[in-house]
Amino acid sequence: MRLINQIQVALLITFILHNLQGNAQKINNIQYSRQKITLDDIIDIASKKSLDAFKAKQQYGASYWQFRSFEASLLPKVNLELEPLSYNKSVLKRYDSENNIDVYRPQQNLNSYGNISINQNIKATGATIYANSSFNRLANFGLIDSKYFSAVPIRIGVIQPIMAFNSFKWARKIAPLQFEHAKKEYLYELQDIKLKAVNYFFNWASASKRVELARENVTTTQKLFKIGNKRYELGSIEKDDILNLELDVYNAETNLIRNERELEKTESELRLFLREDSPLRSLPELPESISDLQIDPKEATALVEINNPEIFNLKIRRIEAKRDLDKAIKDNRFDLSVIGSYGLNQNAKTFKDAYGRLLAQQMIAIQLRIPILDWGERKGNIKTAKMNNEVSEIAIQQEGDKIYQQLGLKIIDFNLQKQLVAVALRTMEISKSSYELTEKRFLSGSIDLLRLTSARKAWQAASENYVMCLYNYWKFYYEVQQLTLYDFQSKSTISKNFDEMINK
Predict the structure, then answer these.
(1) What is the tally of structural domains in the chain?
(2) Is 497 domain-assigned?
(3) pTM of the predicted model as reported, rounded to 2 decimal places
(4) Is the CB of residue 143 less than 8 Å from the CB of residue 42?
């Protein structure tokens, strides 16, 4: 009789397993019919369509036009000032010299004015040279009508500060560096977009993996519960075992609902980031192809020195600190300027005479301002500027050291990650095989439910840990790539055709 029961149980288990495996195969066929999308695909979409990419491009565009404006400021400027018509009619108080009294007299005049000028800043000395030509016509109406013309056909001049702060010289040093920094900052932002894409992709992949495991768990617990019911009817297991199997089904279904909700959340976040829905109609394909790449810390440090925008910005800040110190020193000393001009002018009652018999117009001036007594105010300002410059230098050094330290730690993490990925993969494979063997032993009745549950949890934890190790590998890689702006896989510096980009 016992032999007959064992045969019935074996046949029943075989029948149930066949049906459940057929259903599981159908589910797998539906899933694998969906197209797979890789991490590189997500990165490519994010680099083109995300709002972060658009923002980075606009920020570079602002820096581009700012630099163009600076370059234009170095060129001569031509200005035209016109006042074609200015009519004035009023009653003004005037002094009557014959009667030695003030009187009110009506006044009516018509004035026209024009001036064209050209200015050029001299970067080397901080001087400004200019040339201009002007014309004025004044017509009076009243008791006596009169008309006058005044002309300055040409006047040239120069304003040269001596021992003064030369803003043009410092701007010429800093502005090109700031534009170069804007380029590096744009490339840095693109790498930041890649890092965000890695994060969103693996959140999505992890959630998808958890849903996949949860579905398998539901299928398995339902299978074991059905087998347990039949075995209980045949008297081969106890009541508490069948209750635990039923509880496992409810827990598995609850866990599946929770993981499906989490998957919807990660898909929504990915959709918002990419501004694109098409990837979510696909399945994430894990980037499991891990190379033997090992990053040399010395090579990476040299690349950071050249490419990193933060290090580049520290160089700019160091120059700006020297500029501020130079300004503080020169602004708190004596001022000396030389101003000179030469031109031709004339006034007459006719237009022709205004441009005839021209008279020379000359002006030269030396302006000097020397502090006699300021109770140490200027000396204090200079001392303060020097102290601030030293503080800035220390802060710049600290920030640079922090970046290099951060780089070193990330390189260590990346170089270790390949081994961790390999260990995680092997652990997942072993735990899966262990679970499959444990399940067979449970079905044969040689081990209890607790051992089976423990083996299933170990397999699921190992699967999730493998995905996390892959995430850390690519996260550390792109973090090092962001700091160095160097692609270590293709062994090339990351660059962009900025002229083509700004013209799109």
Answers:
(1) 1
(2) yes
(3) 0.80
(4) no
